[in-house]
Amino acid sequence: MSGRTIGGVTPISPIAPTAPVAPIEITADEARRIQLRAQGLLGTDGRRGGVAGMLERLGAVQLDTISVLARSHELVPYARLGQIGRDSIETAYWGADATFEYWAHAACVLPIDEWPHFEFRRRAFRARGRRWHKVPEKACDQVLERLRADGPLTTGDLGGGRARSGPGGGEWWDWSEVKVAVEWLLDIGEVVCVRRIGWRRVYDLPERVVPAGLLDRTVSDEECLTRLVGRAGIALGVATRADLADYYRIKGDQVDAVVGATGLVPVTVPGWRGGTWADPAALAGPVRGRHRTTLLSPFDSLVWDRRRTSRMFGFDHRLEAYVPKEKRVHGYFTMPLLAGGRLIGRVDPAREGGTLVARQVSFEPRAVSTRPRAEAAVAALRTALWQAAGWVGCHDVRVETVLPPALSSHIRQAMPLITQADLS
Hints:
alpha+beta, 14 strands
């Protein structure tokens, strides 16, 4: 690696294979706390370096089109850093020439130092020759010519994204030839996105925006995978083979091929099946610190993998935005409620003028199984809602449906009783 420092954190490098060692046993509770610290949601380490430091530690922040309180890539630093200015978030992502956008867990913001390590994916795209569409070669040549002459450019600058106008346009199957071409060139690394304007990608040529030392590096698939599996292990703290594969959406056999060279150490966790590894730095001492109380984006990397979230927290996480309204259980944009190191419930938020509305609050049964637990859960909800309200510029909070219903009156009585101590 270049050795460049981002947000005060020096990027990791692959570590040579070591002799097998006997797995260390850690408890499920220890594994949960290790993950929370690794993800910047326990203790003070998660605040070091601001947004740039957070991105370096997580390795990737997912982008998504849905915006309720804010877009997901804004909600991720909010959950870790608190009421940080939204403009400063965008500047950290797109204004410092330190990031690019590419396919990781999904479409993600990534540290620019990771550019060489996604060459394995770019090679795979080239070998396959297409993703969703037949690639129009003439349009690709035209896009590259325009970018050389006039770039950086958005899809609109290049001629538009839709093949046709009217209702239903804009889905990937309705892409114009220009949109197909520029997205394909992004897939194979002949164009790059290093910033967005609003929600529009801005495309440019890699030689203009990727540092030469990164652009010119030749990295084998094995080196790419070793780096990314190691990064996933550090970002998760402790992880199974499937967890490591899911973080950057690689294959299980690819994990098997390189995990011994990552520097991760084998561990066992009671009740976990299959091989499990941990970041050795995460095992160096006890996990201590203050837990964050916050609402999480449904696309937060803490809850990316539904099976892992269930295993870690006993929490069934599911985004229902794409579920027909009549079949939704928890709501359109369900945000997990994190408090005390546990996922204790869900909130489906909305905004009505200056009011943050919790359309539905659904507590986990175990989180309200006793009166003290219920009181703690209500206090956590109050804090999380008022913090979020202040961040998005709302001056009031309203709670509508509550599950279990027995807590409805208690919650409505508690909501106005926020104090500055709750927000600190």
